[in-house]
Amino acid sequence: MNVIGLMSGTSGDGVDAALVRIQGRGHALRVEPLAFRPHPYPASLQRRIVEASTSGTVAEICHLNALLGELFAEAALGVIQKAGLRPGDIHLIGSHGQTVHHLPKGIREPGIGLVRSTLQIAAPAVIAERTGVTTVSDFRSRDLAAGGEGAPLTPYAHYLLLRHPRRSRLIVNLGGISNVTYLPRGGSAASVRAFDAGPGNMVLDGLIQRLTKGRSTMDYGGRLAAKGRVDRRLLNELMAHPFLKRRPPKSTGREEFGEPVVARILNARRACQLSPADLLATCAMWTAQAVGGARRWLHGAVDEVVAGGGGVRNRTLMTYLASVFDPIPVKTFNDLGWDSKAFEAVAFALLAYQTMAGECANLPAVTGATHPVLLGAIVPGTPGWMREVRRERRKR
Question: Can you list the domains of the chain with their CATH numbers?
Answer without folding.
Answer: 2-150+343-395 (3.30.420.40), 156-328 (3.30.420.40)
